[in-house]
Amino acid sequence: MMFQNLMKILNRILPGAAVLLASALGLVLISCAPEQCGRPSQFPDGLRVLASPDDALVARVRDIGRKGTDAYESRIEIYSKRDSAKPVAKMSHESADGAHGRGVMRFSWTANSKYFVYSTISSSDSRPWQFETYVYCRQTGKFYRLDDYFGPITEQNFLLTSSDVITTRHLEKTGRLGEGASVTVSLRTVVPLCVPVGSSD
Asked: Cβ(143)–Cβ(152) under 8 Å?
Protein backbone atom coordinates (compact mmCIF):
# COMPACT_ATOMS: atom_id res chain seq x y z
CA MET A 1 0.00 0.00 0.00
CA MET A 2 2.85 2.41 0.85
CA PHE A 3 4.42 1.84 -2.57
CA GLN A 4 1.09 2.40 -4.34
CA ASN A 5 0.53 5.66 -2.42
CA LEU A 6 3.99 6.85 -3.41
CA MET A 7 3.17 6.16 -7.04
CA LYS A 8 -0.03 8.22 -6.79
CA ILE A 9 1.76 11.18 -5.18
CA LEU A 10 4.51 11.11 -7.79
CA ASN A 11 2.02 11.10 -10.63
CA ARG A 12 0.25 14.15 -9.21
CA ILE A 13 3.54 16.08 -8.99
CA LEU A 14 5.03 14.90 -12.26
CA PRO A 15 2.97 12.77 -14.66
CA GLY A 16 4.89 9.69 -15.70
CA ALA A 17 7.25 9.84 -12.72
CA ALA A 18 5.77 6.68 -11.20
CA VAL A 19 6.48 4.70 -14.35
CA LEU A 20 10.06 5.96 -14.45
CA LEU A 21 10.61 5.04 -10.82
CA ALA A 22 9.12 1.59 -11.31
CA SER A 23 11.37 1.07 -14.31
CA ALA A 24 14.43 2.13 -12.31
CA LEU A 25 13.51 -0.40 -9.62
CA GLY A 26 13.16 -3.14 -12.20
CA LEU A 27 9.38 -3.37 -11.79
CA VAL A 28 6.62 -3.51 -14.35
CA LEU A 29 3.91 -1.51 -12.65
CA ILE A 30 0.37 -2.00 -13.94
CA SER A 31 -1.55 0.89 -12.43
CA CYS A 32 -5.21 1.71 -12.78
CA ALA A 33 -5.91 4.57 -15.16
CA PRO A 34 -9.12 6.60 -14.70
CA GLU A 35 -10.85 4.83 -17.59
CA GLN A 36 -10.14 1.44 -16.01
CA CYS A 37 -11.41 2.03 -12.49
CA GLY A 38 -14.24 3.54 -10.55
CA ARG A 39 -17.99 3.24 -10.39
CA PRO A 40 -20.25 3.15 -13.49
CA SER A 41 -21.44 6.72 -12.88
CA GLN A 42 -18.03 7.79 -14.19
CA PHE A 43 -18.65 5.89 -17.44
CA PRO A 44 -22.00 6.96 -18.99
CA ASP A 45 -22.13 4.07 -21.46
CA GLY A 46 -21.34 1.54 -18.70
CA LEU A 47 -18.45 0.08 -20.70
CA ARG A 48 -14.78 -0.05 -19.76
CA VAL A 49 -12.23 -1.47 -22.22
CA LEU A 50 -8.59 -2.52 -21.86
CA ALA A 51 -6.32 -4.15 -24.45
CA SER A 52 -3.64 -6.63 -23.43
CA PRO A 53 -0.01 -5.37 -23.55
CA ASP A 54 0.69 -7.49 -26.65
CA ASP A 55 -2.41 -5.98 -28.27
CA ALA A 56 -3.83 -9.41 -29.12
CA LEU A 57 -6.82 -9.44 -26.74
CA VAL A 58 -9.30 -6.90 -25.44
CA ALA A 59 -11.18 -7.10 -22.14
CA ARG A 60 -14.57 -5.39 -21.98
CA VAL A 61 -16.20 -4.73 -18.62
CA ARG A 62 -19.90 -3.91 -18.90
CA ASP A 63 -21.49 -2.37 -15.79
CA ILE A 64 -25.21 -2.46 -15.08
CA GLY A 65 -26.47 -0.09 -12.39
CA ARG A 66 -29.53 -0.46 -10.17
CA LYS A 67 -31.98 2.45 -10.18
CA GLY A 68 -31.91 4.64 -7.11
CA THR A 69 -28.69 3.16 -5.73
CA ASP A 70 -24.92 3.26 -6.23
CA ALA A 71 -24.85 -0.52 -6.54
CA TYR A 72 -23.90 -2.14 -9.83
CA GLU A 73 -23.02 -5.51 -11.30
CA SER A 74 -20.61 -6.39 -14.07
CA ARG A 75 -20.10 -8.70 -17.01
CA ILE A 76 -16.65 -9.40 -18.45
CA GLU A 77 -15.96 -10.39 -22.04
CA ILE A 78 -12.58 -11.20 -23.58
CA TYR A 79 -12.22 -10.67 -27.34
CA SER A 80 -9.50 -11.46 -29.84
CA LYS A 81 -8.50 -8.43 -31.91
CA ARG A 82 -8.44 -10.69 -34.96
CA ASP A 83 -12.11 -11.58 -34.49
CA SER A 84 -14.22 -9.15 -32.45
CA ALA A 85 -17.55 -10.70 -33.46
CA LYS A 86 -17.65 -13.25 -30.65
CA PRO A 87 -15.88 -13.27 -27.27
CA VAL A 88 -13.34 -16.02 -26.63
CA ALA A 89 -14.40 -16.06 -22.96
CA LYS A 90 -16.94 -14.36 -20.72
CA MET A 91 -18.00 -14.18 -17.12
CA SER A 92 -21.17 -12.68 -15.66
CA HIS A 93 -21.46 -11.37 -12.11
CA GLU A 94 -25.06 -10.26 -12.65
CA SER A 95 -27.96 -11.47 -10.51
CA ALA A 96 -31.65 -11.73 -11.35
CA ASP A 97 -32.68 -9.02 -8.88
CA GLY A 98 -29.59 -6.83 -9.28
CA ALA A 99 -28.84 -7.18 -5.58
CA HIS A 100 -26.93 -10.46 -5.26
CA GLY A 101 -24.14 -10.08 -7.79
CA ARG A 102 -20.80 -8.32 -7.94
CA GLY A 103 -19.38 -5.20 -9.61
CA VAL A 104 -15.85 -4.91 -10.97
CA MET A 105 -13.62 -2.40 -9.18
CA ARG A 106 -10.02 -2.53 -10.39
CA PHE A 107 -8.80 -4.51 -13.38
CA SER A 108 -5.62 -5.00 -15.37
CA TRP A 109 -3.66 -7.34 -17.62
CA THR A 110 -0.39 -8.80 -16.44
CA ALA A 111 2.71 -7.54 -18.26
CA ASN A 112 3.09 -10.85 -20.14
CA SER A 113 -0.53 -10.65 -21.37
CA LYS A 114 -1.26 -14.14 -20.04
CA TYR A 115 -3.69 -13.12 -17.29
CA PHE A 116 -6.49 -10.59 -16.88
CA VAL A 117 -7.06 -9.77 -13.19
CA TYR A 118 -9.96 -7.91 -11.58
CA SER A 119 -11.33 -7.25 -8.11
CA THR A 120 -15.05 -7.04 -7.32
CA ILE A 121 -17.43 -5.70 -4.69
CA SER A 122 -20.83 -7.07 -3.68
CA SER A 123 -23.90 -5.33 -5.09
CA SER A 124 -25.59 -5.86 -1.70
CA ASP A 125 -24.47 -5.01 1.83
CA SER A 126 -23.08 -8.51 2.27
CA ARG A 127 -19.38 -8.63 3.19
CA PRO A 128 -18.50 -5.07 2.07
CA TRP A 129 -14.91 -5.76 3.23
CA GLN A 130 -14.40 -8.64 0.80
CA PHE A 131 -13.16 -7.92 -2.72
CA GLU A 132 -13.38 -11.25 -4.51
CA THR A 133 -10.58 -11.25 -7.06
CA TYR A 134 -10.73 -13.17 -10.33
CA VAL A 135 -8.23 -14.14 -13.01
CA TYR A 136 -8.79 -14.97 -16.66
CA CYS A 137 -6.10 -17.36 -17.88
CA ARG A 138 -5.27 -17.02 -21.56
CA GLN A 139 -3.86 -20.53 -21.83
CA THR A 140 -6.95 -22.32 -20.49
CA GLY A 141 -9.54 -19.76 -21.58
CA LYS A 142 -11.16 -19.97 -18.14
CA PHE A 143 -11.79 -17.75 -15.12
CA TYR A 144 -10.55 -18.50 -11.60
CA ARG A 145 -11.38 -16.97 -8.19
CA LEU A 146 -8.24 -16.28 -6.17
CA ASP A 147 -10.28 -16.24 -2.93
CA ASP A 148 -10.69 -20.00 -3.35
CA TYR A 149 -6.93 -20.32 -2.88
CA PHE A 150 -6.08 -17.52 -0.41
CA GLY A 151 -9.35 -17.24 1.47
CA PRO A 152 -11.42 -13.99 1.43
CA ILE A 153 -9.44 -11.18 -0.24
CA THR A 154 -9.71 -7.87 1.62
CA GLU A 155 -7.83 -5.55 -0.77
CA GLN A 156 -9.45 -4.05 -3.86
CA ASN A 157 -6.25 -2.43 -5.16
CA PHE A 158 -4.08 -5.40 -6.00
CA LEU A 159 -0.64 -4.68 -7.44
CA LEU A 160 0.88 -6.45 -10.46
CA THR A 161 4.66 -6.50 -10.87
CA SER A 162 7.15 -8.41 -12.98
CA SER A 163 5.52 -10.59 -15.66
CA ASP A 164 2.69 -12.16 -13.64
CA VAL A 165 3.24 -11.49 -9.91
CA ILE A 166 0.32 -10.23 -7.83
CA THR A 167 0.37 -8.63 -4.38
CA THR A 168 -2.87 -8.42 -2.42
CA ARG A 169 -4.30 -9.00 1.09
CA HIS A 170 -6.49 -11.73 2.48
CA LEU A 171 -8.35 -12.44 5.69
CA GLU A 172 -6.08 -13.97 8.29
CA LYS A 173 -6.92 -17.36 9.76
CA THR A 174 -7.89 -15.66 13.02
CA GLY A 175 -10.95 -14.28 11.20
CA ARG A 176 -10.23 -10.76 12.43
CA LEU A 177 -10.74 -8.18 9.69
CA GLY A 178 -8.10 -5.52 10.26
CA GLU A 179 -5.98 -4.97 7.15
CA GLY A 180 -5.45 -8.66 6.48
CA ALA A 181 -2.25 -10.49 5.67
CA SER A 182 -0.24 -9.42 2.64
CA VAL A 183 0.65 -12.06 0.05
CA THR A 184 2.79 -11.92 -3.10
CA VAL A 185 2.72 -14.81 -5.56
CA SER A 186 3.16 -15.68 -9.23
CA LEU A 187 -0.15 -16.32 -10.97
CA ARG A 188 1.39 -19.13 -13.01
CA THR A 189 1.95 -20.92 -9.70
CA VAL A 190 -1.46 -20.24 -8.16
CA VAL A 191 -3.89 -20.58 -11.08
CA PRO A 192 -3.23 -24.32 -11.70
CA LEU A 193 -4.22 -24.95 -8.08
CA CYS A 194 -7.60 -23.22 -8.48
CA VAL A 195 -10.82 -24.70 -9.81
CA PRO A 196 -12.39 -22.82 -12.77
CA VAL A 197 -15.51 -20.85 -11.91
CA GLY A 198 -18.59 -20.93 -14.11
CA SER A 199 -19.05 -18.48 -16.92
CA SER A 200 -22.35 -17.33 -18.32
CA ASP A 201 -23.77 -16.99 -21.82
From this structure: no
